[in-house]
Amino acid sequence: MTSAALEILGLGLGILGWVGVILACGLPMWQVSAFIEANIVVAQTIWEGLWMNCVYESTGQMQCKVYDSILALPAEVQAGRALTVLVALLGLVALMVTVVGAQCTNCIRPGKVKSRIVIAGGAIYILCGVLVLVPLCWFANIIIRDFYDPTVPTSKKREMGAALYIGWAATALLLFGGCLICCCSCSQRDETSFPVKYSAPRRPTSNGEYDKKNYV
């Protein structure tokens, strides 16, 4: 029962991480305007994401525009799009695979095959966490590099937005949830892997006594 509860906990963490990746993918706040030096007081705040950029004015109005061309986008944006969409699809596959092999479901009979299916679901969750970590760290590296680069104009400097932090939190949930699922499934398989041996009952001889070979 303990391993089943931990398995459900890992599945829940994986689902939360999957939802977090989808949320981070859709938010336009991957990088935001940096308020430094002459830009401390500004009338507009610029948000840039994977799919659109938004301008938030001090009056409370916000205007968003979807990127016109995909091929004209920077490499990190194109990679971020591809990997986050891939992780969203893989997360759905991991959810289905884990539910099919979970201890709380009866889709497959308990045994080695069921444990291997759950391990595969946990491994997919771990793969999702690794894949989504690539664009997050890529964006963070570019933002930090440009922020401290004196050749970059102040108006072009950006800071890390909320979507990056949501993505990192989702990555942690995916990795931890996947590891938890795999560990619980491995421990369950080890517990059920010991062979059970049954000894044949002793048969009495014709004179009513047990055969001496039964006492060897």
TrEMBL record:
InterPro entries recorded: Claudin, Claudin5, Claudin_CS, PMP22/EMP/MP20/Claudin
Protein location: Cell junction, Tight junction; Cell membrane
GO cellular component: bicellular tight junction; plasma membrane
Pfam family, one: PMP22_Claudin
Claim: Transmembrane is one of the keywords in the record: yes
Keyword terms, alphabetized: Cell junction, Cell membrane, Membrane, Tight junction, Transmembrane, Transmembrane helix
Main location: other
Keyword Manganese: no
Record-annotated membrane-spanning stretches: 7-30, 82-105, 117-144, 164-184
Role summary: Claudins function as major constituents of the tight junction complexes that regulate the permeability of epithelia.
UniProt xrefs under PANTHER family: CLAUDIN
Protein name: Claudin
Organism whose genome encodes this protein: Stercorarius parasiticus (Parasitic jaeger)
Upper taxonomic lineage: Eukaryota, Metazoa, Chordata, Craniata, Vertebrata
